[in-house]
Amino acid sequence: MPETRRPASVHGRLLSYLLIPLFLLLVAGVAVDHHVIVTPIHNAFDHSLSRSALAIVARIRPGADGIPEVALPQHPPPPLRAMSDEHFFYRVSLPDGRTLAGIPDLPLAPDSGAEDGFSYTNLTYRKNNFRLASYRTSETGQPLIVTVAETPARRDRAVHRLDVAFLINDTVQMVLVLVIALVGIRIALRPLQRLSRQLARRPQQALTRLSTQDVPSEVLPLVESLNNLLGRVRDSVLSQQHFMANAAHQLRTPLTGLKAQLEVLARETAGGPLQERIALLHGGVDRLAHTANQLLTLARAEPSAHRSSHFALIELPKLIGEVIDSSLDRAIAHGIDLGADSHPAQVNGVYWLLHELLGNLMDNAIRHTPAGGNITVRCGIERGHPFLEVDDSGSGIAPEERTKVRERFYRGSGNQTDGCGLGLAIVDEVARVHNARLSILDGSTGRGTRMRIDFPAVS
Q: What is the pLDDT of residues 186-240, one digit of tens each?
């Protein structure tokens, strides 16, 4: 069986739409910050490197033989030396390539023709990366080229630290923006959440319009369409109810007259050959009248036909007493022991509907319980929930048919009674009106059927 795909929420979709642009914006921001800070940092370190070259020039003196002298060792001591984990080299040479001081094989930076005489380049020297600056000057009276080189570790560390600082700063800003956006989304979605709660709290039978107050303009067309749909469904249900009620009512009047005429005819032909046929007709009319009454009850039991104002607190023991009183003569006539086991219990419901529910359960129990059997009606509270049940020792209902018998006009394969197949459909419909659950169980004695209605707790 394929897995049911969980529907995406508006909150989740908005969050996903925000995360990708914010991430791209974070990357772009860090890249721009890096580009902005790299040039000034390199310029600052190049300026420091040029000052080293100028410091070397300051130690150059004219020589006795016309060749300038450099008062520096080949490996300069601090403070000209860089940090302990870095390398610093210098070279003082003539334009013809002769080296006067420093490292003879240190390359020169190509002449850039700059006004200040400095030229810079990056190169690999002795298997290390170096930043190299060459200063072309004639301050000693003779053209000289002073070249200095250092490993870029310090500038790389400075760039790295600033990159990390900008990354942390930009990340914190993006997180704050995301949090603010999420709070804004949550606040903006509150009308939808209220609408969702309004729909969740509505009873199943409610077909009234949804409130459009404080509904966002983007959702208003959906709510209005849903209200229109609810209106059409309500009109259709009411039309169906009216049709069934009118049809049942129209059937009852002629059936009552027909039944009266049959009774007169039965008295007039008492002991005659037509007596048996008249009895059959009388039974058929009774069944037809019962069906009409059941149809009328079913129409009136539709969940959408009842409002919250129709409900009231009902004492189940009192209800059981009234139904047993009305059914006692019939049970005695069938040789059935009818009793009650009532405990205090209240439900919030429509009285006449619960009366019909229990009456139908009682009618079914009497129909399917043979002479010498027993029927017990119980009520009480179990695990905080009121319950009502009718327990008989009749023929019972096969487990495979316990779902089908709830359907309208369904009659079990072993049902030889004169029922119309609407009793349990009415019971199930009334249970739904009261948010209750109908359970069809085995009889408590191991025989028959136990019909149980579990109601929601009364708040």
A: 887 777 777 777 777 766 556 677 777 777 777 778 778 888 887 787 777 677 7
Predicted confidence (pLDDT) per residue in 313-362, tens digit: 999 999 999 999 998 988 999 899 999 999 999 998 888 889 989 988 99
Write out pLDDT tens, residues 48-73. Answer: 888 988 888 888 887 767 677 777 76
* Range 30-45 burial, b when 16+ CB lie within 10 A, else e: beebeeebeeeebeeb
- When the pLDDT of each residue in the chain is averaged and rounded to a whole number, the result is 80
CA dist., res. 126 & res. 240, Å (int): 97
